[in-house]
């Protein structure tokens, strides 16, 4: 397949997953603000969200103080925000349009419909839209596109590139979502383990659509270490870092097997190393190391794997 | 008086008899529902048309009219013979002018029009492409003025676009009105992509052994016809490449793939000559494939249409196509040319300038309905303005009478009304010369308008050929 086509498919996957992440982050934020978390009443936790998403500074420069309205605009509609739903959907759709020949008509149809309907939504007065509705809209369309891809695309190299994009982006997104908790401050140190602390963990579970799944898997009380275990190491959890990385591995292996020894597979080797490092830890070790430090390490490693994918397959390696 | 393709005198013509009943029984709310459905399908599959320099919505749709345009098989067979005849003559002309130039030696066409033509590529003189074919897809624009009166408005030998509309319009009609197709014998057009692939494979270069690898070369997704490029690649199951995906190594062209370089044998290019190879044509071009022309000249790759094919579809050369048919084929032209005044000729110039209010004046190299004057539809100021442009550069213009384009029934606000149409069939030239029974019918949706270009308020229709 053309290197350029592979690149568009890879980034299409990443952008679709990223659009969903933006929506999920907003959902976390909106739920946290419903919780009175200071003795004085409500406190602004939007800042935490922006820090986890890695764009606090860009936001501050454009909007100043973070409010629900400004954040909603920024996360959903702002085309200057590279991670907004608008930007991601537009890029995914543009990429899809460029490689139309590599998509089934069902997959393209779903992707294009998502984009066209977003444009309709965009033109509606902001007052008529609320966060829950925007989040549902995004997740609904993300799921439709994902379903169309899963049920109709040929299981060829294009399939691997698309899903590799999805998987790497999802691994990154779950890590960032967990990191929100690091930035959301508890009022005082004795709140650790309190109802408020538990509530915040619960919100993260909900945002990852993992609330009920968690209860099936663990039962009992929601504790920090159980939630973190579920989202980092549990292989049954569909969005856990380990599951996502295992899926990425699967697709890297698919490519390596398909292309044979003539084509470099450094990305696969790198992913293998990271997965190994993940498996050598348990959740206590991760908390001892510091959750935030661990997540930062992981996010960095996902970046390295992504770079290796570029070097192996997407760069048009063979120069004339 | 305009020829009405549905009504002759007080009778409904045979091709339209069944549509006439259909129209009569269709409730207007059903029509509106179907129209909305058609538009939503078009938008969802992503057929949109962006016009350069017009701004606005890049995803604008070309309006689709649900009322088909219909030919009887007997009418079509004659058109088919005429179109194929013309395509053969144009290719013979190209073979000749890049070779010995017999037609010029025989003084049947002025030397200046050929060798001094901007579209004449000196870089390919003496290069004979496989099977001697230069123009592999010939789009012939036709208008009808009477029952048996068809005129060729222009020839498109380079990269005629619009065939995706022919195919998609049909898909949509079949999806929306299956009953019409069940009760009528409408000849299918869906063989086109396969025929195109066979045509392209049949002109693989000498050095190609085994199955030829065919690709489509597009300027990229910002091009207004990108949808079509991608659609055709998909239908044929071949790669859609941009210049940067290709490179030359030694005597072959390769594309960059995830598995390393892959050799390319036939390039169906949808870019202009000047953007093919910066080493050969435009040095400032960032597009194109450096070294491509060397490989082409040495028979390492085929390019469709061949570089230089444009010299045959110039509006000045157009006037000589009937001569070409007689000269190369020894036949009388089946399709007529429109009478054309060439403004670089003294007498023609005088005549045209004194009859601007009756004539259509076009730029020799213009396209898309731009840079033209439609005398009878223009104000005195517009005519005066255009006169200055002609006076400044007469050699750049030709003039033709305003043709009485035929009309077809078309859905409009108030119901069904006649609107003017033209027709572009797509003729394929490779090992064989092929024409699928259909084409792109464009319709001027504004009442009285004779301009069918999509950039100027035109729409499209499905085109049917009924088996008898």
Automatic annotation (TrEMBL), chain A:
The DUF403 domain, residue ranges: 1-314
Record InterPro entries: ATP-dep_Glu-Cys_Ligase-2, DUF403
Top-level taxon of the source organism: Bacteria
A Pfam family matched in the record: Alpha-E
The protein's name in its UniProt record: Putative alpha-E superfamily protein
Automatic annotation (TrEMBL), chain B:
InterPro entries for this protein: ATP-dep_Glu-Cys_Ligase-2, CP_ATPgrasp_2, UCP005522
Family matches, as Pfam families: CP_ATPgrasp_2
Gene3D superfamilies: 3.30.1490.270, 3.40.50.11290
Domain (Circularly permuted ATP-grasp type): residue spans on this chain: 68-444
SUPFAM superfamilies, alphabetized: Glutathione synthetase ATP-binding domain-like
PANTHER family for the chain: BLR5612 PROTEIN, SLL1039 PROTEIN
Protein name: Putative circularly permuted ATP-grasp superfamily protein
């Amino acid at each position: 397949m053309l290197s350029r086509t592979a690149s568009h498919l890879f980034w299409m996957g990443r952008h679709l997953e990223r659009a969903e992440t933006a929506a999920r982050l907003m959902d976390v934020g909106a739920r946290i603000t419903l919780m009175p978390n200071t003795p004085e009443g409500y406190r602004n936790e939007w800042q935490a969200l922006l820090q986890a998403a890695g764009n606090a500074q860009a936001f501050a420069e454009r909007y100043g103080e973070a409010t629900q309205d400004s954040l909603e605009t920024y996360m959903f509609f702002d085309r200057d925000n590279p991670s907004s739903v608008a930007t991601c959907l537009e890029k995914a759709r543009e990429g899809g349009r460029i490689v139309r020949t590599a998509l089934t008509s069902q997959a393209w149809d779903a992707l294009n419909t998502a984009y066209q309907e977003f444009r309709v939504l965009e033109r509606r007065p902001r007052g008529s839209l609320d966060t829950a509705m925007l989040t549902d809209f995004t997740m609904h369309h993300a799921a439709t596109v994902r379903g169309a891809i899963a049920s109709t695309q040929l299981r060829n190299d294009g399939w691997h590139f698309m899903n590799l994009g999805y998987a790497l982006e999802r691994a990154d997104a779950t890590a960032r979502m967990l990191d929100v908790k690091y930035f959301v401050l508890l009022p005082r140190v004795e709140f650790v383990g309190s109802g408020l602390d538990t509530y915040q963990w619960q919100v993260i579970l909900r945002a990852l659509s993992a609330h009920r799944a968690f209860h099936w898997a663990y039962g009992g009380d929601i504790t920090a270490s159980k939630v973190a275990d579920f989202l980092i190491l549990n292989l049954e959890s569909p969005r856990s870092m380990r599951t996502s990385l295992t899926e990425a591995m699967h697709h890297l292996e698919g490519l390596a097997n398909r292309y044979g020894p003539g084509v470099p597979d450094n990305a696969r080797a790198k992913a293998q190393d990271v997965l190994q490092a993940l498996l050598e830890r348990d959740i206590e070790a991760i908390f001892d190391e510091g959750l935030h430090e661990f997540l930062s390490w992981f996010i960095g490693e996902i970046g390295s794997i992504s770079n290796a994918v570029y070097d192996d397959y997407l760069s048009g390696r063979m120069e004339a | 008086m305009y020829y009405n393709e549905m009504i002759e005198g007080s009778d409904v013509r045979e091709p339209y008899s069944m549509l006439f009943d259909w129209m009569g029984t269709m409730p207007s709310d059903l029509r509106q529902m179907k129209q909305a459905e058609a538009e939503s399908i078009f938008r969802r599959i992503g057929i949109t048309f962006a016009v350069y320099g017009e701004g606005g919505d890049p995803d604008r749709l070309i309006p689709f009219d649900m009322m088909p345009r219909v030919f009887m098989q007997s009418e079509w067979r004659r058109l088919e013979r005429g179109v194929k005849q013309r395509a053969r003559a144009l290719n013979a002309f190209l073979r000749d002018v890049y070779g010995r130039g017999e037609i010029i030696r025989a003084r049947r066409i002025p030397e200046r029009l050929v060798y001094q033509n901007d579209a004449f590529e000196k870089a390919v003189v003496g290069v004979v492409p496989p099977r001697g074919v230069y123009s592999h897809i010939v789009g012939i624009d036709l208008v009808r003025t009477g029952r048996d009166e068809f005129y060729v408005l222009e020839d498109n030998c380079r990269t005629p676009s619009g065939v995706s509309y022919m195919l998609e319009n049909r898909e949509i009609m079949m999806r929306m009105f299956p009953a019409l197709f069940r009760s009528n014998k409408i000849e299918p057009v869906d063989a086109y992509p396969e025929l195109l692939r066979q045509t392209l494979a049949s002109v693989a270069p000498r050095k190609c052994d085994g199955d030829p690898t065919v690709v489509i070369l597009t300027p990229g997704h910002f091009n207004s016809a990108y949808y079509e490029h991608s659609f055709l690649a998909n239908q044929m199951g071949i790669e859609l490449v941009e210049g940067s995906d290709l490179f030359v190594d030694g005597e072959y062209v390769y594309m960059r793939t995830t598995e390393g370089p892959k050799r390319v044998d036939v390039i169906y290019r949808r870019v202009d000559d000047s953007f093919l190879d910066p080493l050969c044509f435009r040095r400032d071009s960032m597009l194109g494939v450096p070294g491509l022309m060397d490989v082409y000249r040495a028979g390492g790759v085929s390019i469709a249409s061949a570089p230089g094919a444009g010299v045959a579809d110039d509006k000045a050369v157009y006037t000589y196509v009937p001569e070409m048919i007689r000269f190369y084929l020894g036949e009388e032209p089946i399709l007529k040319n429109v009478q054309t005044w060439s403004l670089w000729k003294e007498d023609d110039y005088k005549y045209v300038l004194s009859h601007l209010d009756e004539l259509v004046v076009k730029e020799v190299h213009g396209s898309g309905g731009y840079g033209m004057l439609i005398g009878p539809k223009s104000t005195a100021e517009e005519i005066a303005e255009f006169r200055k442009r002609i006076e400044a550069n007469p050699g750049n213009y030709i003039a033709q009478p305003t043709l009485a384009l035929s009309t077809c029934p078309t859905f409009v606000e108030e119901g069904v009304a006649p609107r003017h149409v033209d027709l572009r069939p797509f003729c394929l030239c490779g090992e064989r010369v092929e024409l699928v029974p259909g084409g792109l019918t464009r319709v001027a949706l504004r009442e009285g308008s004779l301009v069918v270009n999509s950039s100027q308020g035109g729409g499209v229709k499905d085109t049917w050929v009924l088996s008898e």
